[in-house]
């Protein structure tokens, strides 16, 4: 079996392979996880601060070997499964097959062993960074007092990673000669105390005699009109969602204050999702693809308008998480025109075909539509014009500061 772990698991895998997580030799199982939570140790009593876990799908059994891949399909390691829990938690030792070859500042990555060799026995003052360094004088003074090499360890995980490494390189220019910069893909832990303890462990692995934790970043979001936004319409076929979405697109283009991308459900079906069926699995995949493109648009400050049926609540929530994970905003608009009205309109004759059994798994007839309970705006087009519906959406965008 081959499997691509999620970004957090991949980051932990890289640190396991590099030796930064010594004495761990693989992902933790149930017993180790329990004692880490309860006592801050592994099951054998070895001090360890934080969970390092991997989840795999069903069908994996003890003794199986699973090849772990990077997002581009490059084999990174083989996991020998020792246990697989019902929730997917999978433990076992790993054997490295390669190292990550891509990514920003790959040339700066070094293993703890390589850094210790470069230090040549000299003491090091490690500074772990999750944000820019405010006071370099304290670092320089401490290093001078210890007669130590300064080792900047930007904890470059996720979207902020490249900017953090650039901040470390700028700091390097203002610190004493010989200061080293080594990016470490350490994902943050939710509890500050645990995160700090894990940072100290990693710093020690890289040869630190002393460790300073740089300040946590202060995130001040930009004004709404500068942030990425996804306006996601959901509703039954014939509800009016595509017509409202197109009207919104046209109005925003007329205003000219935002870059707009429009992702209509039918158009996406013919292009991005060509070949998919209308099974639940393929419907979910179609919505995930729309969500991915929309999130990439919003990541760079654009405004994306999506208008699929999106009948399932869990998949809509996945899209919301995709968008918010890149620092953008998500606005869910439920076009709540009743089934009876949608069927009365039936411009494409789809409901009639579904009632006749010619279209299987048709939303609202032979397949469910899960009405959202988290919609930011609800519109019923039964008794209002499309122009009025578009105005309601525009008013919401103006009220939220997303357009001016």
TrEMBL record:
InterPro entries: APS, APS_kinase_dom, ATP-Sase_PUA-like_dom, P-loop_NTPase, PUA-like_sf, Sulf_AdTrans/APS_kinase
Record's keyword terms, sorted: ATP-binding, Kinase, Nucleotide-binding, Nucleotidyltransferase, Phosphoprotein, Transferase
Any Pfam family matching the protein: APS_kinase
Keyword ATP-binding among record annotations: yes
GO cellular component: cytoplasm
Family recorded in the similarity comment: Belongs to the APS kinase family.
Biological function: Catalyzes the synthesis of activated sulfate.
Name listed for the protein in its UniProt record: Adenylyl-sulfate kinase
Protein's organism: Nonomuraea fuscirosea
